[in-house]
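hey so i finally got around to running both of the ones u sent me last week. sorry it took forever, my laptop kept dying halfway thru and i had to restart like 3 times lol. anyway pasting them below in the order u listed, first the sequence line then the structure token line for each. didnt double check formatting much so if smth looks off just lmk and ill redo it

first one:
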Amino acid sequence: MRWRGQRESENVEDRRGERRGFGFPFPGGGMRFPSSGGGGGGRGGGIGIVGLLIILGLVVFFGVDPSVIMQGQGPNGGQGFPDIRLPQQQPDATNFPAPGGQAQIERPKSAGEDDLKRFISVVLATTEDSWTQTFRELGARYREPKLVLFSGAVRSACGTGMAAMGPFYCPADEKVYIDLDFYRELKNRFRAPGDFAQAYVVAHEVGHHVQKQLGIADKVEAAKRRMGAKEGNALQVRMELQADCFAGVWAHRMEADKGLIEPGDIDEALGAASAIGDDRIQKQTQGYVVPDSFTHGSSEQRVRWFRRGYEDGALQACDTFNTGRL
């Protein structure tokens, strides 16, 4: 991707090095255990240290999809979208804050991390340009999201996110959260290298922000509250595949309007989409696949919908909710 010398977004918050207490109860309500990647409208209290240990055990040792866990109700009813999971991620004790602690211990940032921050800022800027133009063509105004860089754990309006849960979008504060260490995992563990694979991750999360702006996210969450686990998971899959398709629409604009895509970039994005399919992750973490528990879509589905958005370049191509074939 030809990114050097391009505009960097001003909507990046660098919270790396912050080490805060987990701060239960979560802002706007406690952490709940919904049946799928959202759902539930109740407001509860904090889960306490025992609940935290259960969560860590599930994520780390059993490869549980964190979207089943980290879905705290935000102040405006928004759920988080932890999208790209790190199966069997081993926690780094130095990154987890002591309960209730507020010490600010700065971890030195490497030159590579700072370069990656600039890259992410450029990618975010391209999404701003792309979606601003798309919304303008629809007669609407695009409200730019913030992107938060963190290390270890981070507070959001949807609850506390941890690095082991992967990047996520919180509609309650309209922010994307990414621990840059995830990109090392994407390259080494998922075997999905390349800068455009990294850009795809940002574009997918921004896709959830587009869904929020269009009112899709609120409708999906309302529908899931009336559903059981199996039906809710199926609806969430359509939500995630649409975000993949929106990422493809962004890539189309990147190539058509900006000329920033280089040979091999789209293959890198497709490789990342394939690497993080539910079927592949379940196979890695538990040795078998349970399609009814999918919340993000199979590798083949994620690749197909990203490609569809990229080849068509229009929002209308991304209607995952009214198609018989995902």
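and the second one:
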Amino acid sequence: MYRTAYLLLLLTTIFWAGNAVAAKFAVGHVSPMVLNTSRWGIALVILSALGWRRFAVDWPEVRRRALYLLLLGAAGFSLFNVALYSAVLYTSAINASIEQAGIPMLIIIANFLLFGQRASMAQIVGFLVSFVGVAITASHGDPRRLLALDLNFGDLLMLGAITAYAGYTVALRFRPQIHWQSLMIALAAGGFLASLPFTAVEIASQNAIMPDSRGLAVIAYAAIFPSMLAQMFYIRGIEFIGGNRAGLFVNLVPVFGTLMSVFLLGEDLHLYHGVALALVLGGIWLAERSSRRKAAA
């Protein structure tokens, strides 16, 4: 079970990191809100085509919990990306990378305040070690750069983004007992519907860019890997090991994103990339080792 959870969560973070790299390829080829709406629209169509039979069976329960499912999909699937895409217009990539690393800690705090679920000392230490790895990545190996961070409106948007995703993770514990295909269809519907007003504003303000061939390729990747597969794997990972432990894997996203930028975008590879990856993986291993021992006991 643990190995399956680790594999699913590892793939999740790789796909999410790839999404960040794909966003770089998308600049000038498709605008952010058009990309967001398109990815969830395509994901919704594919998921519905594959899972409509299961959805029909689960419809009574889906209808009973419709508002909850739509809000959950809106927060976790769409609003996070809307806030992230908007934030990078005002703040630096360094700020955004570091701030995303706050998601695991917000999950731990929310689970404690709302449900009395305590994190072990090893989990907290593991988070801190992983956070150092993220900080090294974001600062390009020079921690002094962190002292020069300029907080602004973009950072406020990032706070909203990470709060939305942490809240989504915590709220998944209340998901109805329906087939995963039905759950994904309902959540994708929430994500798609929530994206529409933002795209409408982008079009009305004449900032929308309709996709060309490269934009279509980015949309296809985003719809299949970060939108569908990663979200399914993340949900399954939470089912296996819980939100506190699964959330810690999010710290791999900026590290993998940096490594992908090296190999796909031609950016330079440095020693600090390896150090950061070792710290993030070491922090996760430390937290998981303690959690598995506790579970076994």
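quick thing i noticed on the 2nd:
Residues 37 and 69 are 18 Å apart (CA to CA).
anyway thats it, ttyl
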